[in-house]
Amino acid sequence: MHISNYRYLLLPLEISRRIMSFANKVVIVTGASSGIGAAAAVLFATEGARVVMVGRNQSKLTKVAEQCARGGQAPLVIRADLANDDDIKRIVDETVNKFGKIDVLVNNAGMAIYGGVLSGNILKAYDETMAVNLRAVVHLTALAAPYLVKTKGNIVNISSIAGKMVLKAEYLPYSVSKAALDHFTRGAALELASSGVRVNGISPGPVKTDFIENTGMSEVTWDIMSNAFPLKRCSEPEEIAELILYLASDKAKGITGSDFVSDNGGLLQYIPA
Ligand SMILES: NC(=O)c1ccc[n+]([C@@H]2O[C@H](COP(=O)([O-])OP(=O)(O)OC[C@H]3O[C@@H](n4cnc5c(N)ncnc54)[C@H](OP(=O)(O)O)[C@@H]3O)[C@@H](O)[C@H]2O)c1
Ligand SMILES: *[C@@H]1O[C@H](CO)[C@@H](O)[C@H](O)[C@H]1NC(C)=O
Ligand SMILES: *[C@@H]1O[C@H](CO)[C@@H](O)[C@H](O)[C@H]1NC(C)=O
Description:
Blueprint: H1 6-9, H2 11-19, E1 26-30, H3 35-46, E2 50-55, H4 58-71, E3 76-79, H5 85-99, E4 104-107, H6 122-151, E5 154-158, H7 172-193, E6 198-204, H8 211-215, H9 222-228, H10 237-248, E7 259-262
Parallel strand pairs: 1-2, 1-4, 2-3, 4-5, 5-6, 6-7
Bound molecules: NADP nicotinamide-adenine-dinucleotide phosphate (NAP) and 2-acetamido-2-deoxy-beta-D-glucopyranose (2 copies).
One 2-acetamido-2-deoxy-beta-D-glucopyranose (NAG) binds at residues 57, 59-60.
Keywords: Membrane, Oxidoreductase, Transmembrane, Transmembrane helix
GO molecular function: oxidoreductase activity
Pfam families: adh_short_C2 (PF13561)
């Protein structure tokens, strides 16, 4: 047999290494009750991780937890409102009490509230959006960081292409929160690099989740979005989840402070409103 054929003998081993790549890793996913976070929680569970699911909606959390348990070990479910400081402390406390460590933090929970400059409600929209999309991320990251330093773990922040372009003027606070998130990712990456902790971001374009329903953007549908984007499609949550897993894995050991766009070509051209 030619020497190059021996690589096929290694294949089963390579596959098992991939499957076990998150064995016994403790992974916190915020916004795990739906969409991208739910897909990520399920994928991490099937790869052997001890998953900590964070969200508010109990029935949605329970459904996703059952899916996780079917593919791997049952997750720890923490019902928490990320706009509440005490809830954020509880996420870290309960995780460390149960598992003793944190390997990966996925800051995924996010929302958008209508609020334009002339709308009269921009401050309220700004405060509420920033509380969840930015302040909670900063707070949770700060509380988790000492544990991530111990495990040489890493962080993945879910941003949006709205941080690079203003998708809809009336959702300005959302775009502002995501632009700020991108820069926090870079700053935290620089600070934590000397501790061996990596920090990366992902900026999706349209992804078929409950996001439109949850933000009450009644004028938009996934079909309209699909037509407006160059690849004429929206992403499935699993596509973003795969990218999260890659960045959280050792395969990405050289990647930090990066921001991965997965937007069906949206940033390439002007998209009519
Ligand atoms: N879908 C898209 O087109 C798209 C595009 C670009 C970026 N993103 C980003 O992707 C991330 C995930 O969104 P998604 O599309 O998967 O939307 P989604 O289906 O609406 O999910 C949002 C998640 O965030 C959680 N969440 C929101 N506010 C929370 C709070 N105060 N406390 C705790 N959890 C909270 C929700 O949990 P509960 O409902 O249980 O509270 C839910 O699990 C967000 O950061 C979003 O900005 C989405
Ligand atoms: C939780 O989600 C379910 C299913 O989408 C929905 O019917 C219910 O109203 C939500 N509960 C709360 C408290 O928002
Ligand atoms: C993203 O990751 C970094 C790293 O921990 C964190 O400090 C930052 O606040 C996070 N979120 C945002 C908002 O970038």
